Amino acid sequence: MSTVLADQTDHDRHAEARPPLVEVVLPVYNEERDLEASVRRLRRYLDHDFPFAALVTIADNGSTDATPKVAAMLAASLRGVRVVALDQKGRGRALRAVWSTSAAPVVGYMDVDLSTSLDALLPLVAPLLSGHSDLAIGSRLAPGARVLRGPRRELISRSYNLLLRAVLHSRFSDAQCGFKAIRTDVARALLPDVSDDEWFFDTELLALAERRGLRIHEVAVDWVDDPDSRVEILHTAWCDLRGLGRVAWGRCRTGPGGGPPVAPDRPWPDVALAGFARVGVLSTAAYLLLFMGLRPWWGALTANAGALALCTIGNTVAHGRVTFAPRRPFRPRDQVLGTLVALATSLVCTSAALTVLARLGAGSLGAQVAALVLATAVAALVRFVLFGAWVFRHRGVVDASGPKGPGTGSGVDAGPGVVRGIAR
């Protein structure tokens, strides 16, 4: 027994002497209840099941409860745990402070509730340590992921990532999963150009990395929703949308280091939106004319359905030839299914508007036209996201003669894109 204890002590001393290859950051704000259990669980996993020397950093960003005291106690009692205290809130601010000064070659972070299975940590960091990839993200939306969460959060997550694909043409599947890692040298190169210090930090970092042609590795994760999450969904969604608008029109269109814009292989959102608006105005005008012409014969609801059926087909064809033409080739099946979904969306929005007017007793032609214009505007927003993310998504073939990164003998391109992995 004494020999076993001596061997274990020597192992621990040797592990403590090794400099960390990975630094895992836990950004926390008022997490006094869950912090100790999570840190002890993470440290136990790193000591017994993780093959690389790792440091756990508790990044306290302005907690007002007993979190700083709990963090200090953990740092004093556990090997390989330290605390960085900041005066201001913001997950991005906490990550920026730790990542920019880390001595480890790979840095990462995870949510303090450990919603993501820790078994995914090794597949997350291995491609970074080997030099195969520059960033790695856990994905709850990639094939192979197993997720337990409520329908509201599922809908919000999928809608947000669809919006990213439509507006930024991103290829990564899950921007906001709290489970990411990055090579430290890459982080130091990107962080000066990342403006956000809160929840949008992840999305902006990924968009900038993808724009500069860095390799992003995806790991499909097992993820269980924390019912006691501190995330304010409405506030976070608003901040994300505001940040998305800033990135779409500003920084992300500049080249590396803030230089001249890099020519994209498909149009940036301003070009797409301009074409979408032109087609939309014409198709809406045609739709209203058809509605007014058919209304005396068929009634409002039937005339609306007939006008939509004719104009939605023309609208989809026009967008394929004008708005999203540079992103060809498209799949005919997607165009057919997309047209049906677009028609159903428009039909639901406009029929609901007409029904509400009828119940209010406001069935005049002028009131109906005004209501239809508002309803089609809402449907157009949904259609733009749908078309950009799915129907007219770029599906070109990668040039096999282009540069290949390490380990790409199987034909994975080394340019902007996503390398997927599976962790269960």
What does this structure look like?
The structure is a single chain. The protein has 424 residues and is α/β, with parallel strands linked by helices. The chain is built from 13 helices and ten strands. Helix 3 links the parallel strand 2 and strand 3 (81-86). The protein is elongated, with a radius of gyration of 26 Å. 38% of the residues are buried.
Relevant CATH superfamily of the largest domain: Spore Coat Polysaccharide Biosynthesis Protein SpsA, Chain A
CATH class of the largest domain: Alpha Beta
Shape: elongated
CATH-defined fold name of the largest domain = Spore Coat Polysaccharide Biosynthesis Protein SpsA, Chain A
Provide the β-strand percentage band: 5-15%
Counted beta strands: 10
**Tally of discrete structural domains:** 2
Low-confidence stretches: 1-15, 251-268, 397-416
Question: What would you say about this model in short?
Answer:
This protein has 424 residues and is an alpha/beta fold. The protein has helices spanning 2-17, 35-48, 67-77, 91-99, 121-129, 151-168, 184-190, 201-211, 233-249, 269-298, 300-323, 332-360, 365-391; strands at 22-28, 54-61, 81-86, 106-110, 135-139, 146-148, 179-183, 215-220, 222-224, 417-422. The strands form two sheets. It has an eight-stranded mixed β-sheet with strand order 3-2-1-4-7-5-8-10, sandwiched between helices.
